[in-house]
Amino acid sequence: MSSENCPLRLLVWNINSLVPTVRNAVLKYGSWRGFFDEHRIDVACLQESKVIDDRLTKELVCVEGYQSCWAISREKKGYSGVTTYASEAFAPLSCEADCLGDGEEEEDLDREGRIVVTDHQHFVLVNVYVPNAGDRPDRSRLPFKLRWLAALKKKVDGLAAAGREVLIVGDFNVPAEPRDIHPTLGPYENLYSPEEQAVLKALTDSYPDVWRRLHPEENSTYTVWNEKTSARAFNQGLRIDYVLCTPGLLGRVVSCEVLSAEVLPPKWSDHAGVLLELRDMPPLPPHPPCQHWQRLQRRFNPPNRIASLFAAGKKRQAEGGSSSAAAAAAAAAQPAAVAAGEDDSRGAGARKPAAGGPQQDAGEARQQKKARQGEGLVPGSGAAGGSHQSSQLAGNQEGGAAPREPAGAQQQQTKGGSGSGSGKQSKGGSKPGKQQKQQPEAGQRSIGSFFSNK
Questions:
Q1: Could you give the number of structural domains in the chain?
Q2: Do residues 301 and 390 share a domain?
Q3: pTM for this structure?
């Protein structure tokens, strides 16, 4: 492939269906990429690819080391189609497909997959498959063909007027002059209308026919033959596949040749390929891929979902680690905060120690608080009994024994229950080892305790 000292090699070829061509290339060269390597192709401009969009495959689109641009027929599936492959050294800066229509009235020009325009910095490449006018004698599509060719010239003229060098390559479906038709096929004037001849002449007057410039005396070189009549064996064909260019590119042309049957097997297509070599075409500097190629990449090389999920998991793990560290720091600070809060709460809910007495710890404060709550469990019990019960409960807790209610309190709860709704117990009171009924929460008092303090 091309380098600083080697010419750029550009292949123009109507392949008459891409899928079988790729299959043949795999058999002969091992892969589709092997075909490009064998012929040292930098850019391949193919016509009549006949690919259906929903049947595009990664094998066709993503050739290692190349980018591809596609125009696919929306009017009729498996019809026409144009494809441009470019090596990464000459990857396009931009790409347009089916871009001749100017408004709704010409929208039909862009429905058949007939043009791909790519910008390769040194030049703009226009890869075309010009419509056929239809079978004779009617030639019903001649008006469409003429409109399409007129729109093509307008497009190219606009690029040239903007100062760009332009290559226009492909299958034009019109011979440029009488000697481009084998004499046995009939007079040139009878095969193509004056309008067709005029519009192609207008193109070649502005944008020279490169092969003809290099072979001005050649009269028997053709690029397409009728397969039904074995015309290729007798070289009874037409030359309708062209390389046209702006005059400024003529000085960079090294060669332009129609490839023989020894190079491209005749059974692969009814057309011969044309190989152009251009000098002074250094590889392009690195640049972002064009939007057309980015869309194809997303379609055929989507992001690895497993890798994405793994990366997301690692991110969550990292975030969780920082959260865990913060939580651990908060937990370490919590006991001090709790102790400080309990100290503050003594002034509101706990009895103050006697003046000059020792400071009670938090555990003793909670025990005394529960003992005081126990005062109100037995209706009619006085303050003195409550104090005695409170001290007894505190003593039991310090000694490690489970606190027990006085027998009188158990009997009272068994018969009438307390206002706290503690539920029924057996007549003999609570048995040793059984869990006591839930005591009133901190700060609550029973109805009996309320009246006994009055």
A1: 2
A2: no
A3: 0.68
